[in-house]
Specification:
378 residues, alpha/beta, Rossmann fold, Heat Shock Protein 90, five-stranded parallel β-sheet, five-stranded mixed β-sheet, 49% helix, 18% strand
Length: 378
């Protein structure tokens, strides 16, 4: 029988009180390339393991003094003893002996008389399993390091979110406040007034992005919850359109609102920011001189809100992935106008899902229609 890589330079400790059995095992295993160490009793075997831990142990069960089960338990308590495979040899072929061998920590079980070929196969298998166990431990250590690295990144991300919210929100609010102060000055020139309005619009957009980042982080931790209340949808849409008036004017895009259903039960702040993201997205992709249309209807116990533009639309293959974080439509084979930071639409989906609703994209012929459905809880 040719030796395998698993047997190269492997040391096997054979423990048996019978001289003939030890001699047979020794010659059989040495012919296969193993280095064999012999012990005639339990104490001698334990001393051999303490002196030089073997790669495998072939251990007789019935021996004078300490039996094989007790020897195995003591070996398992030694340094490196827990990882050394033990193959028990016994003349007893019964379930009780087999169970006791397993409880003692045995890895395999051979009954006497042992055929040389079977002994070699069992030892080879034990050594291969030992090598596999070592590889699995390496994989475990690698996975543990990767887990620790991911946890470290997660903690860094949470710290970054805290920095973004607490350290950036205040200066953004200050920008908006000072822009409002400027707009109250009746002596302000038209050019300066237009600049102040743009500052306010940009500050609101930045504030919305900051809050979106925070809510995306909360959603990752399962903490994003909708605080629902009865909302005047007409007033909410009008307020959002008013906030985006400057953006619409810059793009020469107007808003058209037609609401068949003017009330909805939802989280007002989350829904306001969702509509702002959808309207801003529509304005950014609408051709100059066109209209962004906002409609709302009641259907099947839910309120459906649609935001439609006349742009280039969204390819069917991207209508699901576009709601994933940081996904953007690239120029390669896809409309280059459907690009962005990849966070606004991801936030919209999280908000709708927090309301137990759904969000999807329809073909506007031309353009895209972003539709969301929120269950009517009234």
């Amino acid at each position: 029988m040719a030796s395998t890589p698993a047997t190269a330079d492997a040391t096997v400790l054979v423990v048996d009180d019978n001289d003939a059995n030890r001699s047979l095992a020794r010659h059989t295993l040495e012919d296969e390339g193993y280095r064999v160490v012999l012990a005639s009793g339990g104490e001698e075997a334990i001393a051999a393991v303490e002196r030089e831990p073997p790669d495998c142990i072939v251990l007789d069960v019935r021996m004078p003094g300490i039996d094989g089960f007790a020897v195995c338990r003591r070996i398992r308590a030694l340094p490196r003893g827990a990882e050394t495979p033990v193959v028990f040899l016994t003349a007893l072929r019964d379930v009780e002996t087999f169970d006791e061998a397993l409880r003692a920590g045995g890895d395999d079980f051979l009954t006497k008389p042992v055929r040389p070929t079977e002994l070699v196969i069992r030892v080879q298998s034990a050594l291969k399993l030992r090598r596999l166990s070592a590889e699995l431990r390496e994989h475990y250590d690698l996975l543990k390091r990767q887990r620790d690295d991911l946890l470290r990144v997660q903690l860094q991300k949470e710290r970054l979110m805290a920095f973004v919210v607490h350290d950036l929100k205040n200066p953004v609010s200050a920008m908006d406040l000072h822009a409002q102060i400027l707009l109250r000055d009746r002596t302000l020139s038209d050019g300066a007034r237009d600049s102040a309005e743009h500052i306010r619009s940009a500050a609101r957009q930045l504030d919305r992005m900051i809050l979106n980042l925070l809510d995306l982080s909360k959603a990752d931790e399962g903490k994003l919850a909708a605080r629902k209340g009865d909302i005047d949808l007409g007033a909410l849409v009008a307020a959002v359109a008013g906030e985006l008036e400057v953006v619409g004017r810059d793009h020469a895009v107007t808003f058209e609102v037609a609401l068949e259903s003017d009330r909805v039960v939802a989280d007002e702040d989350l829904l306001r920011r969702t509509l702002a993201n959808l309207l801003e997205n529509a304005v950014r992709h609408a051709p100059r001189g066109t209209t962004v249309r906002v409609t709302a209807t009641r259907r099947d116990g839910a309120v459906e809100i649609r935001v439609a533009d006349a742009g280039k639309g969204v390819p069917a293959a991207m209508r699901e992935p576009i709601f994933d974080p940081f996904v953007q439509l690239e120029p390669s084979g896809l409309p280059p106008t459907r690009s962005g930071r990849g966070l606004g639409l991801a936030f919209c989906r999280l908000v709708v899902e927090a309301h137990a609703g759904r969000i999807w994209i329809e073909d506007g012929n031309p353009g895209a229609v972003f539709a969301l459905s929120i269950p009517d809880a009234r």
